[in-house]
Amino acid sequence: LNTVHGIIVQQPLPPHLSLENIMHAIDPRKDVDGFHTQSKFQPPISLAVLEILKFIPFENKKIVVIGKGETGGKPIIKTFKEMGVNPIVIDSKTENPENLTKNSDIIISAVGKPNIIKPDMIKKGVILISIGLHKGSDGKLHGDYKEDKIKNIASFYTPTPGGVGPVNVAMLLKNLVYAAR
Predict the structure, then answer these.
(1) C-alpha of 82 from chain center
(2) CA distances from 31 to 110, 161, 178 (A)
(3) Residue of 115, 170, 168 whose CA lies nearest to 143
(4) What is the pLDDT of residues 2-39, one digit of tens each?
(5) Sign of CA dihedral 171, 11, 32, 108
(6) The whole model's pTM is what?
């Protein structure tokens, strides 16, 4: 359809639907999410992280990405590697992740579970970016760390809500504008 410029897939999908099948059914020229293997668009989450970090030089910085999920960690890791930056990747199989996070300058957490990053896992002055979201027992969305516990340790952190999410939406719309051209 010439009147449709961009298609996004709202996730999570119901369990009976295959994300892979749906993503590959989308015309790559209209995949503004950037998940199709032949999409010309960079995933908005990667663009959002780069936008948040654009004033911070990456040279000589230890960057950790926690989580390798399809919609969070994986596209960010790929984007960093394409830039010549090799982040340390932590997943559920990593032993003693605190040994890696404690010496990191920038930590990007894309897990979506409570307390992935605890105060004793980070050093003073670290930059924390939480992409992962989970709904707490209070019914509200929370990031991968408790903000009140890390706010006096981190030099910068993204809040939830209002952190990466709005920037991600802006980058998605940026992709849509490019798709409409």
Answers:
(1) 16
(2) 22, 26, 11
(3) 115
(4) 789 999 988 888 999 998 899 889 999 999 999 888 98
(5) positive
(6) 0.90
